[in-house]
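TL;DR need structure tokens for one chain.
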Amino acid sequence: MAKAKLSMRERYRLLTRDLDWTPTYVDPKDVYPHTRYEGIKIHDWDSWEDPFRLTIDSYCKYQAEKDKKLYAVIEGFAQGQGHLSLTDARYVNALKLFLQGVTPLEYAAHRHFGYLARHLDGPGARFAALCQSIDELRHTQTEIHTISQYNKYYGGLHNFGQMHDRVWYLSVPKSFFDDGITAGPFEFLTSISFSFEYLLTNLLFVPFMSGASFNGDLATMTFGFSAQSDESRHMTLGLEVLKFILEQDEGNVPIIQDWVDKWFWRGYRLLGLVAAMMDYMLPKKIMSWKEAFELYFEQQMLEGLFPDLEYYGIRPPRHVAQAIAEKDILSHQLYWTLYQFSHAAAFNTTVPEPAELDWMSSVYPDTFDRHYRPLWERARRLQEDGKRFFFQGLPMLCQVCQIPMTFTEPGDPTTINVRTSTFRDERFNFCSDGCKWIFDREPEKYVQSWLPVHQIYQGNCGGASIPDVLAWYGFQPGDGGEYLTSPDKVNWDKWHAPAVVAGGA
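>> reply
TL;DR here they are.
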């Protein structure tokens, strides 16, 4: 008589949990040395529930099918010169920021989840970390393959690995991940599985990939939605991680609350780059930063997630009110900074078109016309007079998020917000109360921050002049600066010039 087919739950148990064993000749604490020093207490690793219960064979079949579809689209897009169907070459600057800033983070996540797949005590947690490690490596590869075709035609995409390690604005995402990786395993899971995956993913992948579709970038749109099914699994894992830790011991609650407070603010500050990208770098707008923030954070997280976590004793993050108050100004302040410093960036910036200014007036009626339209109109007049300006100095950076001091006082968009702390007789500067609070919790960690401006002044970035620093960054002529005079703009106009018929007009 044929044996009954095993259920997915049973197959998952046999291929993950039943492959585990308890060490007898080595103390388990020596086998798993990293999961105790943070103060988190886990009494029963077997209670870890993987909500998807994927086995390796089903996982590989599932991902292989997605890859077949994705690479077919990429190949068709490349053969059909799909990049010429973009709304405008300005759009490619959003891809540059994505490739330079996000793709190396995917690889860093792959490496550290692979590390956790060895060092977490429970087999369920180890297997979940292994699957996410493979996911992150796949995302790294597909992002590079999807965007690499643009490197044939546009600047700023040729050296993203070196740029990520050295360039000033890329120290913002890099410092976020360095902070998480140098924490303990449970804080890393909170920083990545909760903050990065649950907070950032929806606000990055969904609006941005929809923006890719609206701007004619079929390849990036297909990659985004191919990755989004993985990201949904990662988000669910992030929530399960929090619930699992909170259910294990009441003493875990204040530790998790501190991490939720910290990593909310760190993730929110990182999202400032996404805000600028959404409102200013997409020629054809799909959704404003304010609308995305209200939908994916205020409604889905504050009104959906945190009421559920209240059962475990977790309240909404510290400083969340300030983030909500900044939704009308965040993108404008970030992009204004990028506009002034893009001569030292590997992407182009320019003054928004009049229709775009009108769009921002409509979606930001309380702030844009009063505070930001006058800046852009003045910048346009200067540019038309041949006086396009770039800030020639080096800005003060926040010691924690490493963003230049561009944010304003709560309730006063005309005054720059600067906070300070003194540690070991040295003064440190911060862009906000949130970053100052994070520093004051563990100053010994953040005094070690690698701040690009400080490193330039110390002579550690290739030399003392801007050309020296840009060469050390790995830039090539035309990678950054004003879009209207860039090689990207020149080539775009040439590619789209009306065809001239031989022997006629």
